[in-house]
Amino acid sequence: MDGLLTIGELAARTGVATSALRFYEERGLIRAERTEAGHRRYPRAVARRVAFVVFAQRVGLTLEEIGGELAKLPADRPPTRQEWGRLSRTWRARIDERIAELERLRGGLTECIGCGCLSLDRCAILNPGDRLAENGPGPRLWLGDARPGLDRAKTGGQGDAAAERT
Questions:
Q1: What's the rounded Cα separation, in Å, for the pair 8 and 18?
Q2: Which 3-state string (H, E, C) describes the chain?
Q3: 0.70 exceeded by the pTM?
Q4: CA–CA separation, 4 vs 15, rounded Å?
Q5: What is the dihedral of CA 143, 144, 147, 151, to 10 degrees?
Q6: Which residues of the chain register pLDDT less than 50?
Q7: CATH architecture classification, 5-90
Q8: Which pLDDT does position 161 carry in this prediction?
């Protein structure tokens, strides 16, 4: 078992807690070999898989989705650059959606939490009669819903950005 990492070494190398590594192993995201005493030993390539899990979670993939993506990679050797590239290309749309979501959040920080309920002085203008509640629970504007009663002709066809300036 020469060249293998203990769970503590893998945790130190990846910055991921040992409890999380055990959890990832239970979920089938990573694999360990066992010593005769039952101690976990990880091939060095597992560090890449752990980094992938951490990154994929930050992108917004669920553990089930991450497991599906990792299943596309070879289990017996480190993936090639082409294999990693193929895998990450499928994330572009997901990342673009996340960027748009964060931009909406940034735009709403000075006005409200996105649904208008905490901006009492402007709520009647942005969300008259609480019509956004018809779209479901949560911060509807932050989730990307259009403002009720927004007249595109009045804003010159520029939508929400122009309406925020009025």
A1: 7
A2: CCCCEEHHHHHHHHCCCHHHHHHHHHCCCCCCEECCCCCEEECCCHHHHHHHHHHHHHHCCCHHHHHHHHCCCCCCCCCCHHHHHHHHHCCHHHHHHHHHHHHHHHHHCCCCCCCCCCCCCCHHHHCHHHHHHHHCCCCCCCCCCCCCCCCCCCCCCCCHHHHHHC
A3: no
A4: 17
A5: 180
A6: 114, 120, 151-166
A7: Orthogonal Bundle (1.10)
A8: 41
Q: What are the tokens at 113?
A: 């939490």
The tokens for 143 are: 């989730």
Token couple for 93: 């749309």
Which residues are within 8 A (CB) of 84 and not within 5 positions of it... i.e. 6 or more apart? Answer: 73
* Locus of tokens 């969300």: 127
Place of tokens 């009663």: 149
So what's the pLDDT on residue 22? 97
Q: Are 4 and 42 in contact (CB under 8 A)?
A: yes
In the chain, ranges of CATH 1.10.1660.10 domains: 5-90
d(CA 32, CA 46): 8
pLDDT value, residue 117:
53
Question: Which residues on adjacent β-strands are paired with residue 42?
Answer: 5
